[in-house]
Amino acid sequence: MKLITRETFGAVTDWRIFVEAIDAGHALPKAEVEDVFLGPPGNTLLSRAARIEGIGFGVKSVTVIAQNTQRDLPSVQGGMIVFDEQTGTPAALIDSALITDIKTAADSALGARYLARPDAKHMVVLGAGSVAGNVIAAYRQMFPKLERFTLWNRTDAKAKALAATLQNTGLPVFATSDISEAVGQADIVTCATMSTDPVLKGKWLRPGTHVDLIGAFRADMREADDDVLTSGQIYVDSRDTTLAHIGELKIPLSRGVISEADILGDLYQLKARGSADRHPDTITVFKNGGGAHLDLMIANAILQLEASQS
User: Are 162 and 174 in contact (CB under 8 A)?
Assistant: First the structure.
């Protein structure tokens, strides 16, 4: 069984490989997925399992230990086991953080490829964590006409520090403290925060903007206000992992702000259609909710890439 860590795998240089892996995975029969939670909040074992006909089986198990921040340890740690489809033999154990980092950015980049205008030039990212750096790198490869990236963060110093780091790699990234002005000039807006209350307001968006919502993953979390959802066409990566589980959609659905009929498709449906039916002035909204099936698609791509280089 292979052991693949972030250190042995190295940095991602071609995000298109992983975007295509998720896209190709949605041409296969629909995945079976299941999540299991054990333990109280802040001291939890989360296991996410998937089976995809044509790929195989995978289980990603992570511990979520809140007090690890006081121990100088990551709060989330774990690994993913990938099993051969025919024999059930464990093929690899892969660092869960590596899988999650790649999946998150590639998932959003694929959603944007279907939904954003291909001539997008300005991308605004709300948040200044590791996700922000990854999505900028992924989007830059998928949208070659992007010529400016603007970072905003509640802590202005963090946005400036990340912008400086990314500038040193040759990316045209700049920090701002004026969120409304930046969003109003954007072609693509990505939210990658840990907010429980909306930070993005629909009244700031201009026609034709694509909104990419990444950060919210719990039932109490939201990044976009009601106006964002009611002003745009809404899509998700997976109906099964977003609508009933994540506050971004669960809360407005429960309040009647939107209905399930307003969710126009997920990645399976977008793959089947080949494109979204949108006017150049249409605002599109994509909720990146993740899921074990996406983890398995990325794990399979990592194994194929490793095999091709050996």
Answer: no
Instruction: Kindly give the residue spans of alpha helices, DSSP state H, lying in the chain.
Output: 6-9, 15-25, 96-115, 130-142, 156-167, 179-184, 226-231, 239-242, 247-254, 267-273, 292-309
**Number of domains the chain is built from:** 2
Domain hosting residue 130, numbered range: 107-291
Pair 85, 121 in one domain:
no
* 144-189 pLDDT tens trace: 999 999 999 999 999 999 999 999 999 999 999 999 999 999 999 9
Indicate whether 32 and 122 sit together in one domain: no
pLDDT at 256: 97
196-230: pLDDT as tens digits: 999 999 999 999 999 999 999 888 999 999 999 99
Tell me: do 53 and 85 sit in the same domain. Answer: yes
Q: Is the pTM of this model over 0.85?
A: yes
Same domain (yes/no): 243, 278:
yes
> Cβ(286)–Cβ(215) under 8 Å?
no
Whether residue 42 is predicted with pLDDT greater than 90 in this model: the reply is no
276 shares its domain with 132: yes
